[in-house]
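Troubleshooting: if your tokenizer reports a length mismatch, compare against these two reference records.
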Amino acid sequence: MEENQTPKQDSAEQPQRPFRGLYRHVKVSVKTLDRIIIGGIAATVLLVLFGIANNGYTVTFDSRGGTDVPAQELMYGDLVAEPEPPTREGYVFSGWYSDENCRYPWDMETYQVSQSMTLYAAWEEVP
């Protein structure tokens, strides 16, 4: 061999790059990608567990002295089904409200459920 030529190294002697598998196409360390994947899996598991634990919302009806109205179990975004109006001697039922003071009427055809809540009956006294 001449002096200026370097002998060819065997492929066995060349340093091997670590196997990166699917990671070979990204410019982030394997350790960082592993953390991202584990974090994603943990978040998914937590969301599934939260979904299982949260079976929906309960809408209760406070008839405020009237006949009982059964509660409804609903999911987020559902509309409350119009229950049978309660009755109360000497009064006329005038609707369901989202507050005890009957200032905010609940529109059964528009408002969606976003949490467990109580709807309050409003009454007008019969003269």
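Reference record two:
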Amino acid sequence: MSAPFIRLDDLRAFVRWTPFVRPFRFGAVTVEGAYQAFVTVDLEVEGHGRATGMTAELMPPKWFDKRPERMTDQTVRDLAASLAHAVDQAGSLRGRDTAFGLHGDLHGRQLAWAREADVTPLSAAFGVAQIDKAVLDGLSKAMGRSFVTVLAGNGVGLDARLTPDLDQAAIDARLAALSPGRSIALRHTVGLMDRIEGADSLAGELDAAALRYFKIKLGGDPQADCRRLVEIAALLDRRCADYRVTVDANEQYAPGDLLALLEMVDAEPRLGTLNSRLLFIEQPYDRRVTFENALDPLVAARGVIIDEADDSYDAFPRARALGYRGVSSKCCKGFYKALLNAARVAVWNGEAVEPRYLVSAEDLTCQPGLAVQQDTAFVAALGLTHVERNGHHYVDGFGPAPEAEADGFLAAHPGLYARTDRVRLAVGSGNLNLAGLDGPGFASGAVPDLSSLLPLSMLSPEGQPA
């Protein structure tokens, strides 16, 4: 498949305030609500006509930028500024190029702006990632094909201009291996404020869904985290015959403290089963020190991946050189980077006696609708078998979206959603049914009610509801 040239026309960005039904604490921040961003783009695809692409993504505070001197509301304003700048710059790209060619141009402009604006590379990438997703949606619709078919045939023109460690053959081989996922196991998030037993607890989640995968948040205190792991293990050992876990420190650990925690876990007989079923440790150290030292061999042996430290196209190879084994895929960080990291994993594992490198599927509290559909369908196409999903846990169904919007997504994707008291993600089986996401476009099928959204410019100066 040749990659057609694209011309971008009208780009618009919107927001919707989304309150949480329970507080979500990760790292040092507790979130009780956040804006969700929406982007639409009109594009002309050479040889295929015009189409409109759309995407959505939550903008949580203090994840893209955890600098202690940066106030929580400022980190939200930075995300809004990132998106506004990306929309403005993408609208000024009057020439024709492939989808990835447009990305490369926009990526460079965004990083230059971020350096001047004191915005982190991860925050800067957020804006570009939304343009890229909307463009892929529109491109796939114009071509009348699913996004998997478009990517597998490299209809976006993906090349090695940003990853000189890869050759084109490796990129093309990994793209050709993409395949639409029909289902994927849900990995349930256990937040730092989530109860384990009793009302509104992890035990209640086990009653409601056949969960087998869990992601446990760590707080950075070895003794407190070990006690909490013991409490969680007692429930999982009793209720789940065959479970797997990952742990995520969200940059809260110092290297010596993490080693102390692992020693406590190894010495605690009540954690024997959970310890043996640990798949990997996610982003234990502050992104600002992640690349300063190699991992301690005892830590590296558990399998450690980067997430917040994945802020550039060369982050994963640099982390690998220090003993890290994996990197997260999140569409909010950019699906092109995730594709290229997946190509690296294929190359590195092909060179090894035993495969050891991985791309994992993590969540940014993706909301029902475009956000959860696009991110989930993407990681399933990579061949990943389980994905962290937490948006349905912390937000009530479609949240404040109009009921007609939720009904539209239910009608378009009846296997992915179900109606109880309102339309919700269907999680009872412990798997997400993705069979309805393989139509033309980027796992869309239905669209949000634009009349219910606020223009991005109306986000308040405090980063809170206007």
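Descriptive notes for reference record two:
- The radius of gyration is 21 Å.
- The chain has a mean pLDDT of 96.
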